[in-house]
Amino acid sequence: MKREDFWYIVAESHELAKNQVISRSLMGEWLAIFRNDEGKISALQDKCLHRTAQISRGKVVEGKLQCPYHGWTYDTDGKVVHIPSMGPTFKPGNKCSKSYEVLEQEDYIYVRLSSENPEVKPFPMPCHKKPGYTTIRLQHSFKNNVTNCAENFVDIPHTTFVHPKIFRDAKHEKFGALIERANGSVKVTYKNEKKNFGWFSWFLNPNGDEIGHTDEFFAPNVTTVNYYFGGKNHFIITSQSVPVNEEETLVYTDLTYNYGIWTWLSRPLVRWQAKVIIGQDVEILDNQMKTIKKYGAHFQNSPADLIHTWIESIQAEIQEGRDPKLLPRKEAEIEFWV
């Protein structure tokens, strides 16, 4: 199993209208993604077979993608169906662009670069369009890799330093956590978490209700953070980190929550708060990658970093072409201070 076997988001559905083409980069591969007049989506290598112009700079004509250079035209399967210079008697042959599997799910467009391991499916976004819930979608570009982004998204200790006051305050409280690695994922169940969400506590947990909190990582690029407050209010942060290349990651974040009558009224505030917090993460992760480029990624860990090391163990398996689901199941308890 390799990274190319997995599905990655390349756009939100609303970003690609009928008879429109967009360009994307996934793991260094350039993609021309277009939707025909019937709504079918295709993902082709963004290179004309003729003189290698980027076909994503062309246009969709009658449901087919036309190169901006000499007008070579591709159907949704990538087959060359028209060469203007050959006149009206042109008959399509076997010329065909490289194409990739593409699908839509939960208002996202997914592409994968390999057709091996067909059992691999896109990650289902939790509670998407579930009655009572709303979802706010955000996109952010990080100058860092997928693993470092994913580790950040399920890392509590950094929050008091990168997001002081706005998300957590340093109160020197002891946290306990049960960590499980199984089936290509890491799950963390926190204990003893108290009312410490910075000034945002007034919204997330104004009454200081009992908190249920789990963080999960799913190979190779998805994290979910689940909060339950008092058994009634539910807040989920799901991040899909898409490897644009080895040094850039585009992160699609779904903030999905159910807060009763406040669910819809709070959308502007929740969006603003999330953009501020993620913007702070963008800055610190950009700096981390600058340092990695200069000195290398020679990380040293404390016992509190077990979550990171288990995520890295899963990524290492994929890097070696092995199935991370075959890693032995592990379970451990840790303590750390925030």
From TrEMBL:
First-level EC class: oxidoreductase
Keyword Ubl conjugation attached: no
Membrane spanning residue stretches: none
Keywords, comma-separated and alphabetical: 2Fe-2S, Dioxygenase, Iron, Iron-sulfur, Metal-binding, Oxidoreductase
Annotated Rieske domain residues: 7-111
Originating organism: Peredibacter starrii
Molecular function in Gene Ontology: 2 iron, 2 sulfur cluster binding; dioxygenase activity; metal ion binding
EC number(s) stated in the UniProt entry for this protein: 1.14.13.-
Name of the featured protein: Aromatic ring-hydroxylating dioxygenase subunit alpha
